[in-house]
Structures are given as C-alpha cells and as structure tokens.
Amino acid sequence: xxxxxxxxxxxxxxxxxxxxxxxxxxxxxxxxxxxxxxxxxxxxxxxxxxxxxxxxxxxxxxxxxxxxxxxxxxxxxxxxxxxxxxxxxxx
Amino acid sequence: xxxxxxxxxxxxxxxxxxxxxxxxxxxxxxxxxxxxxxxxxxxxxxxxxxxxxxxxxxxxxxxxxxxxxxxxxxxxxxxxxxxxxxxxxxxxxxxxxxxxxxxxxxxxxxxxxxxxxxxxxxxxxxxxxxxxxxxxxxxxxxxxxxxxxxxxxxxxxxxxxxxxxxxxxxxxxxxxxxxxxxxxxxxxxxxxxxxxxxxxxxxxxxxxxxxxxxxxxxxxxxxxxxxxxxxxxxxxxxxxxxxxxxxxxxxxxxxxxxxxxxxxxxxxxxxxxxxxxxxxxxxxxxxxxxxxxxxxxxxxxxxxxxxxxxxxxxxxxxxxxxxxxxxxxxxxxxxxxxxxxxxxxxxxxxxxxxxxxxxxxxxxxxxxxxxxxxxxxxxxxxxxxxxxxxxxxxxxxxxxxxxxxxxxxxxxxxxxxxxxxxxx
Lengths: 91, 424
Prior knowledge:
The complex is a heterodimer of chains A (91) and B (424). Chain A has helices at residues 13-28, 39-42, 76-90; strands spanning 2-7, 33-38, 49-53, 66-70. Chain A is of the alpha/beta class and 91 residues long. Chain A has a single domain (2-90), classed as Rossmann fold. Chain B is mainly alpha-helical. Chain B is 74% helix and 3% strand. Chain B has a three-stranded parallel β-sheet with strand order 2-4-3, sandwiched between helices. In chain B, strands 1-5 form a two-stranded parallel ribbon. In chain B, helix 6 runs parallel beside helix 7 (184-197). Chain B has one domain. Chain A binds chain B through residues 7-13, 15-16, 19, 36-40, 53-56, 58-59, 70-74, and chain B through 119-123, 172, 176-177, 181, 211, 214-215, 217-221, 269, 272, 275-276, 279, 283-284, 287, 301-305, 307-308, 311, 314, 350, 353-354.
C-alpha cells in the first residue's frame, strides 16, 4: 500500500504529517510506503491514499485514490482515525 | 592523506551527507539504511545545484531584458534560487552552521525558558546559508565563523517561534504547537496591524469566498503563471529586436519568454526536489533526537500548519500581500528616480503566497476580515522593502537577480550585516 502526503511545495508540512503517519502505522501494525510531495508531482505518483490538509484536499480528488482531508495538521487523534478508516477502505 | 580528507570535507555535498550519516547512526539505523540515506543526501545537494543552474540561467535573461527595457535592476526574490546559487560558494559554511545550529537549538530548548524546537528543515538550511554568506562577506572565517554562525542560528531557531507564539495560541486555541517559519516578523506585524484596524469578531471564515484560486497552491504552476506575465512585460519593454538578436538566437521573443518563464519554474522544481532529498534524513533525525532530549519542548512547524484554521484568510491574504508587493514596487520605482541603482523588488509569487497567506491568517486572528486584508497588505510591503536593505550586505550575491524573500531573512540579515560592518 502506498500513502502520499501533499502540501504546496512538498517540503515542510507534508513531511511533518508523513512522520506522524509513520508513527500511527507503527502503532496499529500496518506496513505501508509513505512519502511526501508537492501538488505538481502528486499526479505522477500513483498512490492508494492521498493525504492533505483541508485547504488543499480538493486538489487531490482527481488523482484516483482515497483522499484524506485533515482539519488539523497536528491533531494525532484525527489523523489516526482518518488513516485507519482509509486503510480499511483500501483493503 | 590529509589533503585527501580536506578535499572530501570541503565538498559541501559530502559534508551534508556526513551530517545526515551521523543522524542515521545516532538513530541506530541498519547499515543499508545508513548507506541509502547518506548517498541520497549527497545526491540531493548535487540535484539542488543542478536546479539552481537551470533557474539562474532563465533568471539572467530576465535580468538582461529588465535592464534593457527599463534601465534599472529588477530582482525577483526567491529563497530557493538564491540558496541554490549560494551553496556553490558557501556550501561548507552552510552545512556546518546548520548542523551545529540544530545542536544549539536543542541546548537552548533544554536549558533556557525558550522551549521551542524549530522543525522546518528547509528554512533552517536557508537561514544557515544566509548567515554563512553574511559572516563570510563580513570577513569572518574558519572555526570562528562556524561557532558564531551556529550560536546565532540556534538562537534564532528558538527565538522566532517564541515571538509568533502569542498569536499562534489565538489561532490554534491551544498551547501545544508552535510556529516555525522565517517570515515571523511579517506575520507578527500583520497581527499587530490587524489588532489596530480590524475587528476579530468579523472573521474571514464567515464570508463566502470563491475557492477557485486554490489551484495556485501548486507552487510550480503559480511560479510559471506569474513569471510568464513578468517575462512578457520585460520582453515587450525591451523590444522584439533586442531579445531576438541578443538572447533568443532568432526565436520569437514571446515564445522565448514563455519557455524561459516555465524553465525558471522548472529550475525551482528541481531545487525543491534536491532540498527534499537533503532533508529526508536530517529532519526525522533532528526531530527524534530533539524530542527525546527535550520532551517538554514545543515543536515549531512550517507555516501551512495555520492554513486549515482559516482557508479564506489564506486566499485573501495572498491577494492582499501581492497587492502590497505591487504597490511596494511602484514606490521603489518612484524612489529610484532620485536614487539611481536602487534594486527594484518585483512581486514574487511564492513568498507572497506562503507569507501572504500566513500573514492573512495571523491578521484574521487579531482583526478578522479587515485585519487579514490590512495585515497581509502590510506584510507584502514589508517583504518588498526588506530585500532592498539586505542585498548590500550580501557581497557579490547582492548583485544577483534574486535574493532571500521572507521577512526574517531580511531582518536578521540586515541587522547582522550592519553590526559586522560596524565592528570591522
């Protein structure tokens, strides 16, 4: 399974969310490849789940994967809940 | 043998690779991870240099056309472009200041009340680079330069999140997370303007703002579009004959401009890919080590952390900041009449987007819709004027067609550059 986190320039916030997702995956014992990118590159990186904050999530809907839209970038509970839900959908 | 070691260490790519390797070893990674991570970091630095070559070539035709068309020096501020250029000459200083600066940040967070860990790796890299440039231009060198530079960087990394924190608490409604992006002075300025002119009860999020502009969040696209407009303006101003004779080798001047504009965006895209590889190992290592050593520290996170709290303010802030940038440019053009040689700072889309959007959210937090508009506008003016004063303290790089864009680089650079100038 592949998870891609996106933000405007793919440097800071997407990287931060990626590290948090890796932590969550470790907790729930799921193996997945997680990476981050800018919005331009996202369309070229085929993924099962695309993650972004709610202000850019609409940009991810046409990419053909499940989109996780986060209201709060730093809320680990929200992240965990939504990621688990998305992983269930992929499975 | 000694020369061999010195030669290796004086290649910035290798030096940054070693920093990354130390991080991986400290995290007790396996041999294959250490090898993979270190090589990718070295590759990142090399890619970054390649991207800088692409961006700078396009930018230099822009500069020549601007000079021809208007008879003045036009500057498009862009952190990535200037850092890409500077790493060739100042890579060693940058790598060492960055590595030890992060150590200083952890020590400050551990032993002083400034409990902030600055996690925005690319800004740490850019700030290390700028400090390296200014100290070198100011005449410092060797160990002395690295010690002074690292202490400064570590202090800045802990101090700026503290400056942003009071407003940050208003935005997020919690005390858990801090703000780490080197445009802080601009955002706090926007928040202050917002608190004077605005009313925070009437927030941007109560209005229905068209979200159509969200596509500009894609920075490569936004750079292409805005550079396209800027390139067309200078190409028309300098005339088809000049462009076709001197620059394009006969290719139609508008076609040439279009390709150059998109090439510049492509160069920035490559630089970003390089930066991403450089940081891929360093940031998780730093985050892991810092949060273990200073468990009660607050992580200071990149500016988009505030965007979901006020998506309307993000777009309004961008437009308003950009308008400030256009007015600022017009003011510089007026001043240039009596001060020939004054660099004209053009509105660059990336800083106005990221910094303008953030200033909008800060302004909204203290002054609602009005605070967002006026605050971001003031921020836009600020990041247009700061580079004018920053460029003279940057030595040869002060004559480039690009420079550091975000407010804190300007503020820190101007203060540091002038202090060194006084001491020397």
